[in-house]
Amino acid sequence: MTTFENFIAGAWVAPETGDYFENRNPADWNDLIGTFPRSGASDLAKAVASARRGFAQWSKTPAPARGQVLQRVGQLLVERKEDIARAMTREMGKVLAETRGDVQEGIDTAFYAATEGRRLFGRVVPSELRNKWAMSYRRPIGVAGLITPFNFPLAIPTWKMFPALLCGNAVIFKPAEDVPLTGHLLVEVLLEAGLPPEVVQLVHGQGSVVGRALVEHPDVPVISFTGSTETGARIGETCGRMHKRLSLEMGGKNAMLVMDDADLDLALDGVVWGAFGTTGQRCTATSRLILHEKIHDRFLQRVADRVQQLRLGPGLEEGTDVGPLIHEEAREKVDEYVGIAKGEGAVVAIGGSVPGGAKLERGWFYTPTIFAGVKPGMRVEQEEIFGPALAVLKAKDLAEAIRINNDVQYGLSSSLYTRDVNGAFRAMADLDTGITYINAPTIGAEAHLPFGGVKQTGNGHREGGWEVYDFYSETKVVYVDYSGKLQRAQIDTYES
Q: Where are the domains of the chain?
């Protein structure tokens, strides 16, 4: 067993609390990966003081040079892709093919960020006055606090961290308590790539302690959080009161719409991957399936037959399709929703139980579950379960399917399977989500496009792509008057 440390003020250090928590394999709870710091507010305060020193240095580094560091980060991730993927599967459970994809997303994000070091564009525009220039440029903000979830232990931290660093900010990284090892490995890569040590701080611990201290610290002007809508609302209250810049990426209740003219073989592949990939533990997971009434019965049967064949097991084991849930509480939540669905009149078409067998009993496995006969407004149709559970609904046409899709508090991702180009464009306009896929499932975001949702999914900012660089930088406007005299905008603009 290994005891890990925080990275604060340029050194690996034990927490001032002297307290640690265990990190265990969710596929085999007897497998203890290591112990990690259960840090306190004083650890966080030291990290902030160090990050401020790091910002003073890093913000003066030319953006192309910052990009070169991130280029090296990407190259190191390429070299260590398999090792990091295996470590990630061991600590969070999803199958190896998916953790390899998780690392690849970090690689893509690093290389994309590196190019933005030469593309932090400002604007030069005509002044309304003679002999005067008017322009804007981007500049860094300060210390950015990054609070990340368990389900994408490398990809989501890189979505936040790499743009923040490229823009010239220092970062304090608080990974989810369930996946501290991947966070540790990422910081090791950053340091080896040449990032100045005080530019990044890694503080492990509970969200209610370390995360709260990070959000409430007056010297951290930028917060980026991915997690539950409830926690995001509380963070939003604090950041609003303290005038902090805040990016929230929260829940989803994403629907796949399948029309009667769709390629049903393609739709079948899509819904199984969208609903049960990552054991349903994605904010973009396909948790609702809205079927045209003409194909509802036969397509539901095909989905049930395919899902019945999915193999549960440890993610590192060859042939595994679905790994464990992250911890016991997550499994209990899924099981609770099975009871809720039955109580509301839905039918458990398949699944709905804890699997047996000596191997599976050591982990937090749950059988992939399909709820049939679900009606709009049922809790399993409205609430995020975050597990291997799919609610199936019926619609008479595309218009009704769109109405059902939109009638939830979330608005992250949606998808439509159809051969009707007119219907596809209508859905692209009318589906009230930040992301829409046509003839693809609700998952599959690419690193060079903005990612995020509407309504209670987020607060308007986006991660990924070009928009995130606006979040981590500020616009400064500069006027240069070389006329040699006082010129008054709006007053002396037009000669009489």
A: 2-250+458-477, 254-438
